[in-house]
Design a protein that fits this description.
Blueprint: E1 8-14, E2 21-27, H1 44-79, H2 86-100, H3 103-111, H4 113-130, H5 139-162, H6 170-181, E3 185-187, H7 197-201, H8 205-222, H9 224-228, H10 242-251, H11 302-305, E4 311-312, E5 322-323, H12 348-356, H13 358-373, H14 384-387, H15 391-401
Antiparallel strand pairs: 1-2, 1-3, 4-5
Helix pairs in contact: 1-5, 1-8, 1-10, 2-15, 3-4, 4-10, 5-6, 5-8, 12-15
The chain binds zinc ion (ZN) (2 copies).
Length: about 400
């Protein structure tokens, strides 16, 4: 007896209204092979229609993933200003961090800003997609259901159209179906690996299509709950998941300031002919800059120090003192433009952070320096103006800077 242990049927999918062309391999139950053994009370027409329904179901699922993902991106970009520019995204993340008041969030934003941005976007998009409306439906579930139903209806129309002639054979029907459905879906000839060509030629096509339409129609109800439960992870096989596409479109330049490590604010990943810049720089304490004599964390920003006669030394300067104002003479610093201006103190927001998380900042950097250099740092000179800053003032400074 011939066995069919590795039967593979290839189904090609062309998603409607998109340039998506996906294909998938569907491994069928090896026990389903030719000739179709009609079980008691299950006729050949029903059996063939069930096999086709399963194949079409998988193909329809594949066909909706990319459009659902794109639809979510369009929706978010239209209705959420924070996803329209890097500045607006940073503004919302910073306001959100201040509201939550979790030092670890600030730390991630300071040390790994691009990772922090991506992670915030992923969580935001995920929460948003799962948010329930008044009908207790999530956005992603609604979109998935909407597109699934639409594709099922289109496939049913193609089945009907292929069945309009009388006295056609199954092969004729299949050919007609593939012709009418080619924009949406197609069934390959490998289908005949699963039942004999001769056997299905005697099928009652009208009965077969009635059965197929009925079972396809039922999918709209039977799959509703599955689609309602869709989350971002259900889209992990799409070319680009929505949060990844949104992040990529907003991250822009990933360079960071060679002194304080704040992100470059340019909106494009490369900007030839234009220096890296940032609207304001961190106060030195944020990035663990300290006076080697007093071990006191510094409060001035990069703008203030490059306007001074102070010097710095590190591996880039081969541990030789170099004046901050000459930073562009160092290759690693040359592509940055940092305005030399003693009036450009830290933004009120970062003053608020330093004043409210002084202990955590000191502990964090002291741990590093104790391991590396054998001493701790301190931060005892914070002005009272910084300490008296209100949350509202901190937030307002961010809204103004990123408006
Ligand atoms: Zn800087
Ligand atoms: Zn840049």
């Amino acid at each position: 007896m011939k066995t069919h242990s590795n039967i593979v049927v290839t189904v090609s999918v062309n998603a409607p209204n998109s340039d998506l062309k996906a294909s998938g391999e569907i491994k069928l139950d090896p026990n389903i092979g030719k000739p179709v053994q009609t079980e008691k009370n299950v006729d050949l027409e029903t059996k063939v229609s069930n096999i086709l329904k399963d194949l079409l179901l998988k193909a329809i699922y594949t066909s909706i993933k990319d459009p659902v993902s794109r639809n979510i991106i369009d929706h978010l970009k239209t209705s959420h200003p924070e996803f329209r520019s890097k500045n607006k995204l940073c503004r919302n993340i910073m306001l959100d961090m201040r509201k939550k008041g979790n030092f670890d969030d600030f730390l991630m934003y300071i040390r790994e800003p691009h990772k922090a941005l991506k992670s915030w976007v992923e969580k935001y998009v995920s929460d948003y997609c799962m948010e329930r409306d008044s009908d207790d439906k999530s956005l992603i579930g609604k979109k998935a259901n909407e597109m699934f139903r639409n594709n099922v209806l289109q496939v049913i129309e193609c089945v009907k159209e292929a069945s309009e002639s009388n006295e056609i054979t199954f092969e004729d029907w299949l050919q007609r179906f593939n012709n009418t459905a080619e924009e949406i879906i197609s069934i390959s000839d490998n289908l005949f690996d699963h039942f004999g060509r001769k056997e299905v030629q005697v099928m009652d096509i009208n009965y077969f299509t009635t059965e197929l339409i009925k079972s396809l129609d039922d999918l709209k109800i039977s799959e509703e709950k599955v689609l309602d439960g869709w989350e971002l992870k259900e889209l992990k096989t799409v070319t680009k998941q929505p949060h990844v596409l949104i992040s990529e479109s907003l991250l822009g330049c990933t360079a960071v300031c060679p002194f304080c490590k704040i992100m470059c604010s340019q909106q494009t990943d490369i900007h030839p002919g234009t220096d890296h810049t940032a609207p304001s720089h961190f106060p030195g304490a944020i990035w663990g800059v300290y006076d080697p004599n007093t071990k006191e964390l510094d409060l001035p920003t990069c703008n203030e120090v490059v306007a001074s006669d102070d010097t710095f030394r590190n591996r880039a300067t081969e541990m030789m003192p170099v004046k901050y104002k000459d930073y562009r003479s160092m290759e690693a610093y040359a592509s940055w433009s940092i305005a030399a201006d003693t009036s450009l103190e830290a933004n009120l927001y970062w003053k608020w952070v330093v004043a409210n998380f002084t202990q955590q900042i000191v502990q964090y950097w002291s741990k590093d320096y104790l391991e590396d250099r054998g001493y701790e740092v301190k931060c005892t000179n914070i002005p009272s103006e910084w300490k008296n800053m209100t949350e509202e003032e901190a937030d307002e400074s961010i809204r103004i800077m990123f408006q």
